[in-house]
Amino acid sequence: MSILEGKAIAITGSGSGIGASYARHCAKLGALILVNDIDEAAAEAIVAEILAAGGEAVSCPGDISDWAFGGELVASCIDAFGRIDGLVNNAAVLRHGTITDMTERDLRAMLDVNTIGTASCAFHAARAMLDAEGGGSIVNVSSGSQAGEIALGGYGASKAAVASLTFSWAMELKETNVRVNAVSPLADTAMSASNKGFMEKQSASREVVYTTLPAPQTNAPVVAFLLSDASVGINGQIVRIAGNELSFVTHPAIAEPVLRGEWTDTAVAEAFRDNLAGTQRKLGLTYARSA
Asked: In the chain, is it the N or the C terminus that has fewer CB atoms within a 10 Å radius of its CB?
């Protein structure tokens, strides 16, 4: 039996790109797929593709930034398949902008879709999963941009919020049969293509540099694993999948050394001069190496 056989899974933003690759792959593994996208025709096309391949799928087009629609999405999955076992919060928008040229409209659009939309769908899905005997798995989508990136401050902030929500929800649900994780994927998509004009400056400012981007489908097995019962016991983690690299992303933590003392104006200045200034964290996406 395939690892997702018979599981009902809703995937937001799955009418194209990386979300569509999740939908196709999970359907091949036996999942019953609800395809969501703001583009109704795109959602219907992926449903038709899955049906033609012998899978089961329905569409639920709509805007996840509308809190009420999150409830409609979950209800549609239950109406179609009798339950919801998994949710992939994939839908997102990206708008570029540095601190001096970003717009309120773009920032709000990213927060509304990437953060509020993720929270809306998770809120309604978690309630339904907690009411069901089998529980379920929520998989959010974060980004390496949460570590900071040139012209992606707003996008990274929206994804850092998703990471924080993942950690908090996993804590809240750890005594239940619902688990919450996130993936930090890398793929050659229309969204990543829009960033190509910034890649030279971005690469110059970070340790982790990508010269080529992998195909969207390379990320799908990780999402399928996190949705499956094989991942029971994995909770509150961000899983990074970048081509041939698979790892966890570190949680925020207090960095050593931790200095102790009475922190007067003079003592603070001396602490930075003699110690802390030389232990500053690198900017951007980097590797957290073991001691």
From this structure: C
3-state secondary structure of 11: strand
Tell me the backbone φ, ψ of residue 9, rounded to 5 degrees.
-130, 130
Identify the active-site residue in 22, 155, 210, 287. Answer: 155
Residue 240 CB contacts under 8 Å (≥ 6 apart), including other chains: 144, 183, 184, 246, 247, 248, 249
The yes-or-no answer on residue 155 being catalytic is yes
* Residue-wise DSSP of 141-186: E--GGGG--TTBHHHHHHHHHHHHHHHHHHHHHTTTTEEEEEEEE-
Residues 121-164 have pLDDT tens digits of: 999 999 999 999 899 999 999 998 898 888 899 999 999 999 99
Report d(CA 198, CA 195) in Å as an integer: 6
| Contact assessment for residue 73 and residue 90, using Cβ atoms and an 8 Å cutoff | no
Alpha helices in the chain (DSSP H): 17-28, 40-52, 67-81, 104-110, 118-131, 153-173, 190-193, 199-204, 220-227, 265-274
* pLDDT at residue 240 is higher than 90: yes
207: left (phi over 0), alpha (psi -120 to 50) or beta: alpha
Would you say domain 8-249 falls under CATH 3.40.50.720? Answer: yes
Q: Can you say how many angstroms the Cα of residue 268 is from the centroid of all Cα atoms in its chain?
A: 38
**Mean pLDDT of all residues in 208-236:** 88
Express as a percent the part of the chain with pLDDT over 90. 81
Span 68-127, pLDDT tens digits:
999 999 999 999 999 999 999 999 999 999 999 999 999 999 999 999 999 999 999 999
Q: Which residue has the tokens 């949705």?
A: 227
